[in-house]
Amino acid sequence: MAGFGKGFIDFEDLLPMIANKVGVDGLINELCNGFQLLMDKDKGVITLDSLRNNSILLGLHDFEEDELVSMMREGDIDGDGVLTHMEFCVLMFRLSPQLMEESWFWIEYAIHQQLNDHSDASV
Predict the structure, then answer these.
(1) CB burial readout 102-120, b (16+ within 10 A) else e
(2) Would you put residue 24 in left (φ > 0), alpha (ψ -120 to 50) or beta?
(3) Residue 80: how many other CB atoms lie within 10 Å
(4) Of 17, 51, 52, 12, whose CA–CA distance to 34 is shortest?
(5) Cα-based angle 58, 67, 75 (whole degrees, multiple of 5)
(6) pLDDT band at 76 (very low <50, low <70, confident <90, very high)
(7) Where in this chain does the record put each EF-hand domain (predicted)?
């Protein structure tokens, strides 16, 4: 997937920088914002049409039709032809090899935060 269009090269470099700069919560917020920008507002999911029509907002205007179709196919885990929020987030992580390598750090960090929040609430 790293060879898709010019946007993914930049994306692979950008997403880890965002994660390091804004932390887990900030990264999740950014992914939510990206999903919101690309989704079909009526259906609440990303369709091929909404990806095609809204991708320019995220700087993906250099993508060819076959690249958009491949991206949808790659991210569509359940095979229903659309991307849910979770499928979109998984796809974004898969497209960023550095984040995949760092994913255990982020999981441990999130668990640690959850445990701290829980212990603070019980005091």
Answers:
(1) beeebeeeeeeeeeeeeee
(2) alpha
(3) 10
(4) 51
(5) 75
(6) very high
(7) 63-98
* Residue 36 structure tokens: 């919101």
Report the amino acid identity of residue 58: L
* 40-to-20, 26, 86, 92 alpha-carbon distances in Å: 30, 23, 15, 18
User: 4-56 pLDDT, tens per residue?
Assistant: 444 444 445 566 777 778 776 777 788 888 899 999 999 999 999 999 888 87
Domains detected in the chain: 14-114 (1.10.238.10)
Instruction: Quote the DSSP letter at residue 81.
Output: S
- Dihedral of the alpha carbons of 98, 58, 35, 12, in degrees to the nearest 10: -10
User: CB-based contacts of 34: which residues, under 8 Å, 6+ apart?
Assistant: 58, 88, 92
